[in-house]
Design goal:
With 793 residues, this protein is an alpha/beta fold. It has six domains: 71 residues, 3-Layer(aba) Sandwich (GIY-YIG endonuclease); 57 residues, no CATH class; 179 residues, P-loop containing nucleotide triphosphate hydrolases (Rossmann fold, 3-Layer(aba) Sandwich); 181 residues, Rossmann fold; 58 residues, no CATH class; 91 residues, 2-Layer Sandwich (Alpha-Beta Plaits), CATH 3.30.70. The chain has 24 helices and 33 strands. The protein has a seven-stranded parallel β-sheet, sandwiched between helices. A hairpin with a 2-residue loop joins β3 and β4. α1 crosses α2, α20 packs parallel to α21 and α23 runs antiparallel to α24.
């Protein structure tokens, strides 16, 4: 029997199937999808069994050493999906497999010494070998590596690699009855506590010492029963449940209004017919999309099938988790970056073992190993975080479409501000469009107020706040209501500037200015991580007139306290939410009224549903508009609409103040009027003229090297190869310097391809990826290929 294995080596050169013989004692256990330990060159490594066959390409094969999990980590579907993704997304297959699985199951390699013959070795050395094994790390700590060398040369000690997974299943010490006849056991006892312990263990089958302690049974009582031969100590495996101690408030099923009912019925028809169909659910903020999702999932579960729900990381708030947990209890597995690696591993295992039937999570949970999916839902489908920016560069929507076809089930894409690509497909009939344009609780949409900051400046107002926003904030604070202020920039200041000579402190490794962070009192580069102390005098002209320019959330927090004497601020950005649980804790504090102003970056734009929020302020609506990104207008429209949707979600009237220097821009005008269709029409004309998606597909190639001449020469060579494989209808732009032309001392050039249909393009891209991987190994020249890019900086 032969196993075809992908080895866990991040190299294009070995990214292929290797044949291994299956030892006779493993033949009945080996199946595709398992992780195995295999010899590879002089070492042992982890691999994934892709197929099992009777035919091999070579006569002499190395045998598989061990099977790491008897229940496969990869389903047959995920194995097929990995092959498709590897080619269509120009990625190494091992990188795709790694992306599919939680970090905990990836290989952990440890150098060890294995004792073969202890008769020749003195006891002062053998004492360090535990079960004939000593790790290199421990041997180095003991400073005995030189002493082991003669025994290694004689073959009495063998150097080896131990392969394990990064995180082990969590176990607790527990006990079980040693004999089945409980009455006979109890008859031997006089202590009431011991009798009660036996009865508890008999009823449960087995209990941990912690559980017994909670019942008033001490370790001394347990040890006495073990000594009498009545109990046996065992290791009991438990799962790390991140929500075990949380109380979920009841979330009753709500009656659907007409638009909700129509959406529900339409999707249900596809569920009943086992039909793969993609629906775009365009529902305004507060229209009740989540309630439709919940009721669809209930129907799917009743049919014995499973459900995947994708939610942007920043929208995975306690409120969202509560709704799903309240409806479906322990059948819900939650997967997001806020969990520890061990917790994520256990949530994943719940799905794998069939203990959970609904997964709610961020982008990577699209790979949840369900075997019978009945519906896939992507909430806030327009969010750019559904696109992975590292290898493999996939979009969760593309993977969801593939899996929905595989399982013959519907895919629901929900958003108040759909991506232009999705809405265009719905307009053409590729997707089925469903609309919910009224709020579920009949609440009115918040009133939009535009503050023209050019006028404010002409009137002498140079502060962060327009007069109207300042007055509105004070009014809401005085009424005991809450305010949300949005600024899409963390840090204290955007950059520092010498007002005499114009010098700006730059990162020495990147072509980008340093950002000032007051909390840590340092200048930081957000690209390579470089940091330095702030400067008090200009390094260029020695002037003392150097100051912070632009504002970040830290600076705005300072200004709020200076402006509003009774303000209590909670700031939410990457700096304040780094610690585990911080995001949830800050939102809980705001919900409980511990602050009257919530100031934050993009993470506060979603998932907030607090009845006391009556004012939202967008401090600078132009931030996105000024980026060199063809999606900048779309992102601006989406952000304004999404942030505005946080206000007035109950019986209190909501207001939104949008501060801008470009009040006439169509993205802002249409957002103020809640007119998505008008925005779509105007933006599509811009896309048509610029030959941008959805009219054209795009592929982005980024080339990097420490030597400017090398990167320019190779970029031109790549351009020439592409031209040979493309039709005259395709557009190849570049090579040209990237907008940020140097990061971490690497010069960066880019090529952009625009096309409608190019059958030979994927073949050419995979060829380039193979060829330049070899050059990277030799000369550190790197080529990054991104299909349908979102980031082109």
């Amino acid at each position: 029997m032969i196993a075809k294995v992908i080895v866990d080596v991040n190299s294009k050169r070995v990214d292929k199937l290797f044949d291994y013989s299956v030892p006779e004692h493993l033949e009945s256990d080996i199946v595709p999808g398992q992780r195995v330990v295999v010899p590879f060159g002089p070492r042992k490594i982890q691999g994934y069994v892709i197929a099992v066959t009777d035919n091999a390409d070579f006569d002499k094969l190395k045998p598989i050493i061990a099977i790491q999990d008897f229940i496969p980590e990869l389903t047959p579907e995920l194995i097929d999906l990995s092959e498709w993704m590897s080619y269509s997304h120009v990625s190494k297959r091992i990188a795709v497999l790694d992306a599919m699985l939680p970090n905990a199951v990836k290989g952990k390699y440890k150098k060890i010494f294995r004792l073969i013959d202890d008769e020749t070795m003195p006891q002062e050395l053998t004492q360090y070998f535990k079960e004939a094994i000593l790790t290199l790390e421990r041997a180095q700590q003991l400073e005995i590596v030189p002493l082991l060398k003669p025994y290694i040369e004689a073959g009495d000690v063998v150097e080896d690699i131990e392969v394990s997974q990064k995180y082990q299943r969590k176990t607790f010490v527990g006990v079980k009855l040693k004999h089945a006849n409980v009455d006979e056991i109890i008859s031997q006892l006089r202590s009431e506590t011991q009798i009660r312990a036996i009865e508890l263990i008999h009823d449960a089958g087995e209990l941990t010492l912690i559980e017994l302690k909670e019942e008033g049974i001490s370790n001394a009582v347990v040890n006495a029963l073990v000594k009498k031969g009545l109990l046996e100590k065992i290791n009991i495996e438990t799962t790390r449940d991140p929500y075990a101690h949380k109380v979920f408030f009841e979330d009753k099923e709500k009656a659907l209004h007409d638009e909700q009912q129509h959406a529900f019925d339409t999707v249900m028809a596809a569920i009943h017919n086992n039909q793969s169909e993609t629906f775009l659910l365009h529902g305004i903020t507060g229209s009740g999309k989540t309630e439709v999702y919940l009721q669809l999932i209930k129907e799917v579960l009743d049919k014995g099938r499973d459900a995947i729900v994708l939610v942007p990381e920043i929208a995975l708030t306690p409120q969202m988790v509560n709704r799903f947990k309240s409806r479906f209890g322990d059948e819900v597995a939650v997967l997001h970056s806020g969990l520890s690696n061990g917790e994520r591993y256990d949530e994943w295992r719940k799905i794998k073992m069939g203990e959970a039937r609904v997964s709610v999570g961020a982008r990577s949970s699209i790979f949840a190993p369900f075997k019978n999916i009945g519906i896939i839902i992507i909430d806030e489908e327009h969010e750019t975080t559904y696109k992975q920016e590292d290898y493999p560069r996939y979009h969760a929507r593309e993977i969801a479409e593939w899996r929905a076809k595989y399982h013959h089930c519907p895919l629901v894409l929900g958003s108040a501000t759909p991506s232009l690509e999705s809405y265009a497909r719905a307009e053409k009939g590729v997707y089925t469009k469903l609309e919910m344009l009224t709020r579920a609780n009949k609440a009115a949409m918040p009133e939009m107020i535009v503050a023209n900051m050019r006028d404010e400046l002409m009137q002498g107002n140079r502060s962060m706040f327009s007069n109207v926003l300042r007055d509105k904030i004070q009014e809401k604070i005085d009424k005991g209501e809450q305010v949300v202020l949005f600024l899409n920039r963390r840090g204290h200041a955007q950059f520092m500037l010498c007002r005499d000579c114009g010098h700006v402190p730059m990162c020495p490794n990147c072509d980008i200015s340093l950002t000032y962070h007051k909390f840590t009192d340092e200048l930081k580069c957000h690209y390579c991580g470089y940091k330095q102390p702030p400067v008090n005098t200009c390094p260029s002209c020695d002037s003392e007139h150097i100051r912070e320019m632009g504002v970040g959330t830290q600076k705005v927090e300072e200004i709020i306290y200076q402006t509003f004497s009774n303000a209590k601020v909670i700031r939410m950005d990457n700096d304040t939410t780094r610690k585990k649980g911080a995001h949830e804790r800050l939102l809980e504090q705001f919900k409980n009224g511990e602050a009257n102003i919530l100031l934050g970056t993009q993470m506060i734009a979603k998932g907030l549903d607090f009845p006391n929020i009556t004012l939202v302020g967008v401090l600078n609506a132009d931030t996105m508009l000024n980026l060199p990104d063809f999606r900048s207008s779309e992102k601006t429209y989406q952000l304004i609409t999404q942030v505005a949707g946080r206000a007035g979600r109950s019986d209190k009237k909501g207001e939104v103040v949008i501060q801008t220097y470009n009040p006439e821009h169509y993205a802002i005008q249409h957002a103020v009027n809640y007119d998505y269709k008008a925005f779509f029409k105007e933006e599509m004309e811009f896309r048509r003229l610029g030959k941008y998606p959805p009219y054209f597909y795009m592929i982005y190639l980024n080339m990097q090297h420490y030597n400017l001449k090398t990167v320019l020469t190779e970029s031109k060579h790549i351009h020439d190869i592409l031209i040979q494989h493309l039709s005259p209808k395709a557009y190849v732009l570049g090579p040209a310097p990237s907008p940020i032309a140097r990061i971490n001392n690497q010069h960066r050039f880019q090529i952009l391809i625009k096309f409608k249909s190019e059958p030979e393009l994927l073949k050419a891209l995979n060829y380039l990826d193979d060829h330049y991987h070899e050059l990277f190994v030799k000369d550190k020249f790197s080529l990054h290929i991104d299909i349908n890019p979102y980031m082109m900086m």
